[in-house]
Design brief:
It is globular, with a radius of gyration of 17 Å. It is an alpha/beta fold and 256 residues long. The protein has one domain: 3-Layer(aba) Sandwich (Rossmann fold), CATH 3.40.50. Helix content is 47%, strand content 15%. The mean pLDDT is 96. It binds nicotinamide-adenine-dinucleotide. The site of nicotinamide-adenine-dinucleotide has 30 residues, from helix 1, helix 4 and helix 6.
Length: 256
């Protein structure tokens, strides 16, 4: 069996209804994992499950708002109840960036972005790590950051702060859990063609042709499946010597 295989691993993917989360859940199932598809939106989450099952894989849906501790605790418990354990998780759920300068901050919007995009990752790891530590035989977690984890954008304070924070959370968790064989890494996507990016393009009234060359050395948006590959590899045994890393999947945007 290839070391990149996820055969019989039990995985949680948050925000798996659409976009990169859905692509990640599909790829994990294709590689043999049993997948908890966790999302706040039951319709799209169930559609991801249906696609996986139709393709011969194993998955089931859990409704979760990652900003709520009781929801993420129930999400991890569902993995244990349905599939017996937890091996890996991709904490991917996030909400669309705020669009105000700090001087015009909308406090409710700021709180919501931080609650989902930063606290949601911390709460997800809290529940996942407790289960992995109780099992006592290691595991792997991938947190989804962004190019905004390193390169700030104007009018994006809450999202930028949250995504910087995801790197901090990832590093702290990697330090705390290496001795237990638990690897914790971040994947930082660039411009990836998902409903989130399409929504942002609509807001600014731009097209891929106008926008992509400034965001990608390849002059095109990435596909969700190209990020899913990085997530799967980092969760697999092939990445056994990697923890505390932030892997850019951004077509060279941040190297410019
Ligand atoms: N699309 C991009 O270009 C881009 C770039 C960099 C980073 N990212 C990051 O990649 C990840 C995935 O982004 P995407 O573009 O696929 O997003 P998306 O908006 O297309 O999908 C996000 C998913 O998360 C779910 N979700 C939202 N709030 C939730 C909550 N509170 N609890 C549970 N689920 C919730 C949504 O229902 C949806 O299914 C996010 O962390 C995002 O910040 C995206």
């Amino acid at each position: 069996m290839a070391r990149t295989d996820l055969h019989d691993k039990v995985a949680i993917v948050t925000g798996a209804g659409v976009g990169m989360g859905a692509a990640t859940a599909r790829l994990f199932a294709q590689q043999g994992a049993k997948v908890i598809v966790a999302d706040i939106d039951e319709t799209t989450g169930q559609a991801t499950v249906d696609a996986i099952v139709e393709a011969g894989g194993t998955a089931s849906f859990v409704h979760v708002d990652v900003s709520q501790a009781e929801d993420v605790a129930a999400m991890v418990q569902a993995a244990v109840d349905r599939y017996g354990r937890l091996d890996c998780a991709v904490n991917n759920a996030a909400v669309t960036p705020d669009t105000h300068p700090i001087a015009e901050m909308d406090e409710d919007e700021f709180d919501r972005v931080i609650a989902v995009d930063l606290k949601g990752v911390a709460l997800s790891m809290w529940a996942e790590l407790r289960q992995l530590l109780a099992q006592g035989d290691g595991g792997a977690i991938v947190n989804i950051g962004s190019v905004s984890s390193f390169r700030p954008q104007p009018n994006n304070a809450a999202y930028t702060a949250a995504k910087h924070g995801v790197i901090g959370l990832t590093k702290v968790a990697s330090l705390e859990n290496a001795e237990h064989g638990i690897r914790v890494n971040a994947v930082c996507p660039g411009a990836i063609d998902t409903p989130m990016l399409r929504g942002a393009l609509e807001t600014i009234g731009a097209t891929e042709e106008e926008f992509a060359p400034a965001l990608s050395l390849f002059g095109r948006f990435g596909q969700p499946e190209e990020v899913a590959e990085a997530n799967a590899w980092l969760c697999s045994d092939a990445a056994s010597y990697i923890t505390g890393a932030a892997l850019m999947v951004d077509a060279g945007y941040t190297s410019r």
